[in-house]
Amino acid sequence: MAASTNNVLRNASQAAGAAVPPFPGGVGLSHLRVYDTIAPDGQMGGSPHMHLVCSEAYIVLGGTGKVESLGPQGYRELMLEPGRIVWFTPGIIHRLVNLDGKLEILVIMQNSGLPEAGDFIFAFPQAVMADASAYARASSLARHDRVFASDDDAAHGRRDLAVLGMMELRRQYEQEGIAALTAFYEAGLRILQPGMKRWQAIWQAGAEQVARDTGQQLEALLAGHIDHLLASSIHEHSTPTGERSLGMCGTLALYLPEGTRI
C-alpha cells in the first residue's frame, strides 16, 4: 500500500472522532410553534421583526396561517398551509399569523448562530427605535445577546409593541414610501452595529468556513485528490426535546448539529 494512501486512511480514521460537522450550508434549523395569543390587531401570532444579514425560510408542518411582510416593494401577505415553503431575504419585516391556533413550522435560517447572536430587530414604534436604551428594555431579552424572552409576559409584551410598531410603519410607508423603510433600517443599524464584530467572528467560523471548505474540496478534486471523500461521515438528529424557548414568533426547539454518527 502506498504511503500516500496510508496517510489518507489515517486522516479518515482521525476524522471519525472529529466534531460533528454543521448542517449543509451552515444553516440553522428550529421547530416553531407560533404563538396562539391575541395581539393588539386581534390576530394570533408572533412579533414583527427583520434580519440584517440572514435569509430565512419557513416549511409548514401543520396548521394554517399567513406571513405578513413589509419591504421595499410594499406590504404583502402569503398564506401558509402544510407543505408550503416561504422564504425571504434580509430587510423584509415579517410576522407570522396563526389562523387556526395550530401553526407549526420548520425554520431554516441562513448563517447559523447569527440570529442567536443578535441579527434581528423588532419593528417597534419610531419613538422606541430612536433610543437604544428604550429598545433594549422593550426587547425583554433574557440576555441582551440572545433572541429569547425570559417569560410569557415579556414575550407577549414585546410582540404587542412590535405589532403596534409595524402598524405605524405601514401607515408611514403608505405616506412616504421607501423613505419610511430607510429610516427604520438606519435606526436598526444604529442599535445593532456595536455587536456586529462578534457576528463576523461567528460567520467566519461557521457559514464562511463551510464555503471555504467547498472551495478547498473543488481545488483538491481538480488536482486529482479524493482525501475528503475518504473522510466522509453520516449523522442523525432526534426530535428536540426538553423545555422550549420563547422566541420572537413562538416557542422554539433548536436542532443543534450534535447528533450521533451512524
List its traits:
six-stranded antiparallel β-sheet, about 260 residues, alpha+beta, Jelly Rolls, 9 helices, about 40% helix, globular, disordered N terminus, three-stranded antiparallel β-sheet, about 20% strand
Question: What does this entry look like structurally?
Answer:
The protein has 262 residues and is α+β, with helices and mostly antiparallel strands. It has a single domain (25-211, 242-255), classed as Jelly Rolls (Sandwich), CATH 2.60.120.10. The chain is 38% helix and 21% strand. It has helices spanning 3-16, 114-117, 126-129, 132-139, 152-176, 178-192, 196-205, 207-222, 227-230; strands at residues 28-34, 49-50, 56-62, 65-71, 74-80, 85-88, 93-98, 104-109, 121-122, 245-246, 250-255. The strands form three sheets. It has a six-stranded antiparallel sheet, with no helix packed on it. It has a three-stranded antiparallel sheet with strand order 5-4-7, covered by helices on one side. The chain has a two-stranded antiparallel ribbon with strand order 2-9. β10 (245-246) and β11 (250-255) form a beta hairpin. α5 runs antiparallel to α6 (178-192) and α7 (196-205) runs parallel beside α8. Mean pLDDT is 90; it is low at 1-17.
